[in-house]
Amino acid sequence: MSKIFFSFICLFLFSFSAYSQSFQENTPPSSSSQTISNDIQTTDRERKDEKKDFVFYPAKVNLSGIVLTPTAYRAKGINSVGTALDFNASYYIGRLYGKNSFSWTSEKKNYLDRVGLWLLEADGKMMVQTESKYRPAMAAGVKGIFKFRDAPQPSINSPSVSVKVDDKNTDTYAAAYISLSKRLHDKFFINAGYSDGDMPKIIYQMSEFLSESALKLDGYAAPRQKISQTAFYGGFIWLFKEKNPIELEVIIPQGGPLSPKLLNLQLGTLLKLNFQISYLTYKGGWEYLGLFNFRYSYFPKK
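Predicted structure:
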C-alpha cells in the first residue's frame, strides 16, 4: 500500500503543477486584487533582500542523480519548482576482488568474476521546494527499472558465463522516493533521501553470496520474502572540475538478510570515461565491483 500511496502523491503533484501553470497563463489579473498583488510583491522583495547573498548557479554537468540514487535537482541544477524526467543506464561488469567468511564456502577470496548486470531506469520527479540559503531543495519522484543480465548470476560453486537473455534473467522494479539536496559550497552538494519499493532487491542481484540459494545455506527460509522494501540513501557531488565531478553515494536497505550496503564511487569522469567503483558489504563478506554509468536528462534540457 505504501508504494501505491507514494505513486499517487507523485502523480497528484505532477497533475497539480501542470494545471496551476495553465490556470495562471489563462487568468488575467483583476483590478480588485491589485493591492494584494502589491503586498505580495513587497514581501517577495523583502525575502530576496534577506537572501541576496544566496545565488544558485547551474552546473555544467548533470546534478539530477549520482549513480543509482536521485537528487532533488532538475537537470544541471534548475532551482525552480517543476517536473523532470531522466534516463539512466548502469552496467555492473563484474567483481574485481572480494572476501567472505561463510562456513559453507571453499574459496574465501574471489576476484575477476563476471556479473553482467544491466539496469535501465526511467526517473520522473517533481521539485516541490527550491533551495535557499538555509533551506534544502526537496523533490518527490518515482523510478521504473528494467533489469537484465548478459551473464547469469554466478553460481556458488563454479561461476559460469552466458550471453543469452531470456525471462529467467530479466525483471522489472519500481520505487517511489523523496530526496533532499543542499549546496554547502559552490562546488560541493550533499544529498539524502528515502526510497520505498524495489531498490533493495537490486542489491541482492550483485553477488552470488546474496542469491536465494546462498541465503538458504545461511539459514534463511524464503529469503525473497524477507528482503526489505525501504532504504535510506545519501551522498555528495564535488565539482572537482567544471565537467569532471567526483561523486559518492551509499544505499542502506532497512532490514533484510545479511544487511547489505552498497557504495558507488564516481571517478570515471576524471579519466574521460564513465567508469565507477562499487563497494558491496554484507554480513560475512565484502566485494569491489566495476561498473559503467550513463545519465541523460530528457526534460528539462537546459
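Summary: The longest helix spans residues 2-26.
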